[in-house]
Amino acid sequence: MQRFKPTWESIKTHTVPQWYEDCKLGIFIHWGLFSVPAYAPPSAELGAVPNDETWFCNNPYAEWYFNSVNVGKGPTYEHHIKTYGKDFAYENFADMWKAENWEPKKWAELFRKAGANYVVLVTKHHDGFCLFPSAYTEYNSTRRGPMRDITGELTSAVRQAGMKMGLYYSGIIDWRFAHDPMFCGEDVRLNNCPTHEYADYAYKQSMELIDRYHPSVFWNDIGWPYAGKENLPYLLAHYYNVCQDGVVNDRFNGWHKDFSTKEYQSGQANRREKWEMCRGLGLSFGYNAQEGEEHILSVEKLVSLLVSTVANNGNLLINVGPRADGTIPENQADKLRGLGEWLAVNGEAIYGTRCGSRENTSTENGGIYFTEKEGQRFVILDGLKKGDTTLTIPGMEGRVIPLDASVQAESKETPDGLEVTVKDYDPGKCAAAFRVC
Q: What is its EC number (predicted)?
């Protein structure tokens, strides 16, 4: 049944499906030609410094290697000249990327152990190389490099592991169509591929992805070609009709969204609407060989990020950047396994919940976060110090029961609220989750 018509009025009646509200954790994957040089200066998080020429010259995103080289100065440019030579074209990486050790089922197994319920694969980043057999270009992974349908194989493995599959597509940028190094501000960024030719190309490839793989998430990046605005209602209506569990993000120039996005420190979280936090385990999305353990989130910080996101009405889409050979670096895999171990014990306070009606608070003894579902209330205490810690939750009544049986806690009602004492706590357990009775 064709529920949605190709009009903005019809499309805007779409609502966020329950699975996306409930799932809380997804895995983002940036893998491609940029994984071969695997280089970027580990400078700063997006949003921590002005998004200007300085940012693009020192861009910590390894997946932006093509652009960083073409800026013509800065660490990535200098690295490229020294390592590959001035005349070495980015496209040559397509024949160097072999993915010889890639086993999609092992990826899916790891993501499931991490506690993820959905996966989003980058099918075409801004460099234009496609990880699927597109009829509109031979610049893809079935014709060059791996000689495999990366998107198809991973989609099958993810679904067999019981997770939803989503697909990322760089809608507004393809540097092969038009490329000015992107350090001149938002206007250049949104009009990097302004032609009707590219708008038609993006539309057709997006339709390919929808019809071939039926993604549960269609994750567009940065924006949509202004020259193709008239076609977007047709694309979105088709997507919602074909993928009845589907959701789209907010990166369509403000024209439409099911959920908003925040990337590192860029963007705002809003408890009144559904949103998604996306970031790499390190400072880059694509694999960056320059990143060390000091750049990677610890398990404790990863759990904290998940808790604060979920308790504020968001999902966490945490990114892995595989090596060119298809293996996921152990310092990334270890963090995912650690997150999964925490969720296996405390997931009741995360999955299927909604952000609590109470505002989350921060105290000198740690953060206090609230979630709830089906009449149940949960409180999650984050940042607890080693040993005994006492916190008071203003206005709360009842008592707390730890979800982790090894956590010892007492609670009592006081005139100031519910006083909770956690005894002999080991911070290595990460945040402590409790059911409130």
A: 3.2.1.51
- Residue where the block lists tokens 């605005």: 229
Contact 323, 287 (CB under 8 A): yes
With vertex at residue 315, the alpha carbon angle to CA 253 and CA 301, rounded to the nearest 5 degrees, is: 115
For residue 327, give Cα distances in angstroms to 123, 323, 378, 428: 18, 6, 37, 27
Q: Which residue has the tokens 């296996």?
A: 344
Q: What is the pLDDT of residues 13-56, one digit of tens each?
A: 999 999 999 999 999 999 999 999 999 999 999 988 887 778 88
Q: What is the largest CA-CA distance in the chain?
A: 73
Structure confidence at residue 187 (pLDDT): 40
Give the 3-state secondary structure of residue 109. helix
DSSP 105: H
Q: CB 435: neighbour CB atoms within 10 A?
A: 16
3-state DSSP of 356-419: CCCCCEEECCEEEEEEEECCEEEEEEECCCCEEEEEEECCCCCCEEECCCCCEEEEEEECCEEE
Q: CA-to-CA distance for 295 and 282, rounded, in angstroms?
A: 5
- Please state the pTM of the whole predicted model: 0.96
